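Human: Cast an eye over this sequence-structure pair and say how the chain folds.
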Amino acid sequence: MTAKIEMAPAEEIKRLQEKRLRELVVYLAEKSPFYQRLFKAANIDISDIKGLKDLTRIPTTNKEDLQQYNDDFFCVPKTEIIDFVTTSGTLGDPVTIGLTDSDLERLAYNEAISFACAGVQKNDVLQLTTTIDRRFMAGLAYFLGARRLGAGIIRVGAGIPELQWDTILKFNPSYLIVVPSFLLKLIEYAESHDIDYKNSGIKAAICIGEALRDQDFGLNVLGQKIKRKWGIELYSTYASTEMSTAFTECPEQQGGHLHPELIIAEILDDKGNEVPEGYPGELTITTLGIEAMPLLRFRTGDVVVAHRLPCKCGRNTLRLGPVLGRKRQMIKYKGTTLYPPAMDDLLNDFNEVQSHTIEIYHNDIGTDEIRIKIATTSISEELSQNIKDHFRSKLRVSPKIEFCKKEEILRLQASKLGRKPIRVIDHRKK
């Protein structure tokens, strides 16, 4: 199940996106209190928005706008909302996103073609190891997408390696939908319980929530660890609640593919200008075909690099490289610009590190400092020094290291909604 437009020439893709963009601005001008105000304040005549190049006439919006004016983004009465979800609230108060029946159909279609992009077929069975409750869009999207594709899906939920393996051995799924670090826990459980996991029938994992690859698309430390132990294929997928769309890798594994009928992507610098090819910038999205809460030039906060050359798989769509980090979590540390995922990756080099949190704060003179709290079974000055040396070697910085009990790390990681562990705690005043 591949969307034909993804294989079309670039000019045909552009024409489709421009047609849908014109439809969107008309819809927002009629239905959205927020964008009605924005168009008026910016003196925008929507008839002037004819092509992708005209997007620059329109101011961007961001998560703070959604938090402050949440209800004004709704384009339909609440009585037409079939499903309510919320964002995770990692960088502030959660935002409510409503979906109409049409939006749920779109969500299912998005995930179906995303699964197909990663090679999932109708005769496959997927095991869902993430939650489908707690107002979580992703779990629902995976279920609806598998149903739309005609594949089977087993809703196991998060955690509990024993239950995961009982399900794998009982139902023989071919794909796992999983946070990649949890794969290491599954391997550890299998090895300690004499489970022949290499012959379990799992052929691939669709990985969410954590980076698997470096910017050159080679596997990072976490990806290499999984691959060495368990030789299954690993596919990255990136999405957010606000965009209701996923960027998923194909078998070439050279970045997540954009679905051009569902979303327009811009990569912008701090001033709102498109960055040069190959440079990192903030992913800014315009959703297409959404009824309840469409977004126009919405800055996601995620810093990425876009790749525009055609893919060997035959798709001519933009591809996104691994997320470098959240723009608001960027750290200026002693002349070096850092994002927390780079530090996560280095900590994966140390088998002794069971779990960790990264704390960012301002020191007495107002510059950024980094403190990493680590849970380990082998506390030693040697381990602390090795970690610092590794950071100096790879990132040219040396963070403060603090050893803590695992229970304290788990408490710090616990989120209000219980959906994603919080590994970065930013104490800086914004």
Notes: The chain has eleven helices and 21 strands. Residues 361 and 427 are 5 Å apart (CA to CA). The radius of gyration is 22 Å.
